[in-house]
């Protein structure tokens, strides 16, 4: 568990960048050989792009770095449980391990609503670790939405 803390902190740093842009604070990093090779934060509002999720941005960067669509020997850290789109991308990229901070009761597809990362019928299954720095990841989101409601 301890080895995951610095990388989840890097994902939290990414989420803070999203928050500074008034985006929902979600961040992700892709790690290869203990080096961060992809970083991403939610940019859905800024880019007006429904695909601009933290995980997809980090995966794209990591693929460019490795010059490969298969992210073998990589780990993806994300502050919030992946949605169906990102879980699909994680399977497509053949990422062996995903570590996430807090569950998403509205869209989580890494075990909460569905488990696309460990679906027997797919040709790839992902090892999932949840709850790393859960408090931090979760309170960032609740505080963001609380502020948003305060303004409205
Ligand atoms: Zn997503």
- Roughly what percent helix? 25-40%
| H/E topology pattern | HEEHHEHEEH
For the CA atoms, what is the radius of gyration?
A: 14 Å
The assigned structural class equals alpha/beta
The biggest sheet amounts to:
5 strands, mixed
Mean pLDDT: 97
Count of strand segments: 5
- What coarse outline follows from CA principal-axis ratios? globular
| Number of helices, counting only DSSP H or I runs of 4 residues or more | 5
Write the layout of secondary structure elements.
Layout: H1 5-20, E1 27-32, E2 35-41, H2 44-47, H3 54-66, E3 74-80, H4 84-92, E4 97-102, E5 127-130, H5 134-151
Helix pairs in contact: 1-5
Bound molecules: zinc ion (ZN).
Zinc ion is lined by residues 53, 55, 82-83, 85-86.
Task: Give a quick rundown of the structure.
With 152 residues, this protein is of the alpha/beta class.
Structure overview:
It comes from Paenibacillus vulneris. GO terms for molecular function: tRNA-specific adenosine-34 deaminase activity. Catalyzes the deamination of adenosine to inosine at the wobble position 34 of tRNA(Arg2). By secondary structure, this protein is α/β, with parallel strands linked by helices. It is 39% helix and 20% strand. The protein contains 5 helices and 5 strands, in the order αββααβαββα. Strands 2-1-3-4-5 form a 5-stranded mixed sheet. The longest helix has 18 residues. The protein starts with a helix and ends with a helix. The relative contact order is 0.16. The model has no long low-confidence stretch (mean pLDDT 97). The chain binds zinc ion.
